[in-house]
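Intended use. Records such as the Monosaccharide ABC transporter ATP-binding protein (CUT2 family) entry shown here are meant for training and evaluating sequence-to-structure methods. They are not intended to support clinical decisions.
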Amino acid sequence: MSAPILELDDVGKSYGNVHALRGCSLRVRQGEVTCVLGDNGAGKSTLIKIISGLHDHSEGVMKVDGEATRFGSPREAQTGGIATVYQDLALAPLMSVWRNFFLGNEIRTGLLRVLDIERMKQICHDELAKMGVVIPDLDRPVGGLSGGQRQCIAIARAIYFGARVIILDEPTAALGVKQSGVVLKYIVKARDAGLGVIFITHNPHHAYLVGNHFVILKLGRVVLDAHRDELTLQQLTAEMAGGQELEELSHELRGAEPGKVAAPAAVPHGQVQAPELGPGDRATDPEGR
Ligand SMILES: Nc1ncnc2c1ncn2[C@@H]1O[C@H](COP(=O)(O)OP(=O)(O)OP(=O)(O)O)[C@@H](O)[C@H]1O
């Protein structure tokens, strides 16, 4: 197993009296997808903010390449090779695809330092092609693209600008089934390109399709930390759903409405009931099984 690029040891963060994160340990390795799952208020955003340099941790140690590190700003985290793709993406909707790709990092040429548009378009085209993204017209405003395509542009951009760890903040949360599939494929491509991917999600089905490693946060604590070999999709779903709590709820609902059969237990927060993985799903199995 390769040495972790990023390690958290017992990291915690308090906002005044609120312990948003406690005793969180995590390893992110090259060529692996680490999925961080958790309900609302579990501490996922706090974790992202610590790793991406927005907040400092109050307890524990964060290491990058084995060295204890505290990022003073998101820019420092980026320089350290850590890129965060937020759900709202920080893309400018009215700007073209290539302008968005180079936003803040434009290539200039000549004495007058004018924008080298042709070169930027060519690089943008090549980098998207490497990820298998085909956008025929790079002059098109990003706002006119699908949510899945926008996520992919943001991922390709992070890779091109030197990310070694990429944090994806619920990239499939606002997407339908097909678009989610597109984004999951690019997560696999980023992993195969050698990045360490942190995939934040509410959805155990999406996580299990691409994940090598799974961490579940609940009320700021890690309640599950398992490698793919140690866990089935059903177990992951049950852990996420809080099997015991749903069992109790199911009894309660049955009691409340006599004669009615309670709804299936494991469907929290509008998520889809867990399908058994079919042969098609295995296409994105990170172990290639
Ligand atoms: N700036 C803050 N000040 C005080 N409390 C905060 C702050 N940010 C987060 N918290 C609290 O910390 C806990 C964890 O919040 P966090 O946003 O990290 O959870 P989350 O898992 O990202 O939730 P969601 O999925 O709803 O975004 C919550 O109880 C939240 O209310």
